[in-house]
Amino acid sequence: MTTPSDPILLTPGPLTTSARTKEAMLRDWGSWDSDFNQITGRLREQILRIVHGEATHECVPLQGSGTFSVEAAIGTLVPRDGHVLVPINGAYCQRIAKICGYLNRRLSTYEYTESEQIRAADIDRLLKEDPSITHVALVHCETGTGVLNPLDEIAQVVARHGRGLIIDAMSSFGAIEIDARTTPFDALIAASGKCLEGVPGMGFVIARRTVLEQCAGNSHSLAMDLYDQWVYMRKTTQWRFTPPTHVVVALDTALQQYWEEGGLAARGGRYARNCQALIDGMAELGLNTFLDHAVQAPIIVTFHAPDDPNYDFKTFYQEVKRRGYIIYPGKLTQIETFRIGCIGHFGEAGIPGAVAAIREALTSMGVQLGRTATVA
Ligand SMILES: *Cc1c(COP(=O)(O)O)cnc(C)c1O
Has this prediction a pTM greater than 0.90? Predict the structure, then answer.
């Protein structure tokens, strides 16, 4: 199904999916059909199983891209008089803060530089100082740079203070271990088109059952009300409004392949090998990572752009694309960077192939290899 001219996406969603996952979409389904609703049911169970949340949590899927589910989670879980603390070390943390503004939820932020991890000790102090904070909203892997934040440490602190934790685990879910039995959280958000290697179009929120039960009437929006979606789905087995049927069956097929591969350990292991091969290969070209190795998640890597007058990202992008790979622009404002994803369905040859394409692309542009920018 992937034709020779289809490029490999080295982007953190949408990403490259398998032929089997794409083939699952060649059939139409009715939203009332019991076979389809069975698929929704088993999808929700499997998603819970990935975080061992069967006994304590509920999986509520929602139509739309990942951000829709983040917004729905904040709007449903945080009461209108709630107060959200958002520690910020990148673009996706910023997006959560923006959502709080749109939803009129009281917001406090705490800022880090984009190469730093969020620190549990800071959260501890901030929660001690301000008892009015009801929730902490944390991004697990900050996809804007690739930083991995110390989720478990922060979750323990938030729980000790008796506040709620909402985790944007969009780009880590399914590849980096999160265990609901030992890492306490009220809600965790992810989506179909990231590490589960489905196609984009639906997100899901894994919410603590006892918390979700208290969430009637919090949401500002009918379409984004996860409580209502949950109650309706429990009663009817159906989605409240038109489900993204093809996305659902593609995710179901992608999950079968996830278990066949060996689940989280195998998926995370493959991405870690991709990440290491990428960093090593790029280092040989003189291209260095923006982050220290110690804080780098094996999901997406930010590289300094070559410090060369012949370099410009748009040309570089097109030259790499002509050679079969789609890369990603940087998201930093101060420093010129680009990003390369380590996730998606491509074989062990994918990363070496991409590094070779990057070498050729830069050479064709007259960029001298072995020279890179230093941190500004
Ligand atoms: C991909 C992603 C999202 C969702 O982005 P969409 O563009 O709505 O799919 C949210 N948070 C993080 C950390 C992500 O990587």
Answer: yes
